[in-house]
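Journal club side-thread
Mid-discussion, someone asked how the predicted structure for our own chain would compare to the paper's figures. Pasting it here so we can look after the session.
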Amino acid sequence: MRLAVLGTGYVGLVAGAGFADFGNEVTCVDIDAEKVARLRRD
């Protein structure tokens, strides 16, 4: 299943990681470009 999570705060990031752990394809979106860049580096 393909899912999109809007916001990568405490709830969105954990929810996205949980869905991904169950084998889903997850895309997280956030308006804070620096936060997204840090997530991509790790």
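Post-session note: The beta strands are 2-6, 25-29.
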